[in-house]
Amino acid sequence: MNIGLALGSGSARGWSHIGVIHELAAMGIEPQIICGSSIGALVGAAYVSGNLDKLEQWVCSLTKLETVRFFNINMSRNGLVNRDRLHEFLNRYVTDDDKLIEAIDGQRYAAVATDLATGKEIWLNQGALIEAVWASISLPGLFPAIRNNDRWLIDGGVVNPVPVSVCRALGADMVIAVNLNNGIVSKHSHKEKPPKEPTPAARDGFVEKFADVVREYATAVFPQSKPAEEQPPSLFEAIAGAVNITQDRITRSRLAGDPPDVYLSPRVAQIGLLEFYRAAESIEEGRRCVQRMASEIRHLMDQG
Q1: Which residues are catalytic?
Q2: pLDDT digits over 112-129, tens only?
Q3: What residues have CB less than 8 Å from 15, skipping those under 6 apart?
Q4: What's the sign of the alpha-carbon dihedral 160, 162, 163, 164?
Q5: 0.90 cut: is pTM over it?
């Protein structure tokens, strides 16, 4: 039986995919077909490239400051992400520049992207693996669109946040889907308590300069200091909220039309769009999510 794993979009919540894959492996389940949207495409690529443990070790060491350094202080008109640092990260912890999707041994892989001109869903299952990942994670406003075969491609979560349909098209007999978008809309009604005022030393240098330039969206990394009822949404909060609402609605619609055999929904709604430094709790929740569904998964495996 060919098992497909559909890894959903969800930005920083996506580190829970690592925990899901590890726990499935502990149950003796090694999917033959891996399909991902956005962060799901990235984690899936690390998995099929044999770099999942290396990726996990790095993301669990990530701090708030390291997260900030992935963004451009000059706020380039093409996106906020520092392309050189991202490329270095993908090369070191996800996959090599010269690795081809069709050369992956023993597994089939596809990343989902969106054609910016037509809105069509694009399945990237041939060519350079790193280019497929880059296209699939290109969230508008953060990452620049990627040119591929005379098309400008952006984040796959825009059209297919949990690519169950892609797994089935590639030959999966049973699909395990991981949805990171459950509960993300209602979570905005909860605000974290403000942090303690930083010391003068902490305000000096890079962090202070960064905060001054990107104050509109830095709330995703540094919580707001005013009470929630008095603090209007920042520019980035509005963008993040719009992304969450869109992906929640699209996910519901797509899964209703093409439900998976196993539906996994890690409880990670409290993790913000850019809180990549919260990897440890996200990965652990991915493991727990599989554990909660273990009996159903075993039952389906026995029937297959």
Answers
A1: 38, 155
A2: 999 999 999 999 999 999
A3: 39, 43, 59, 276, 278, 279, 282, 283, 286
A4: negative
A5: no
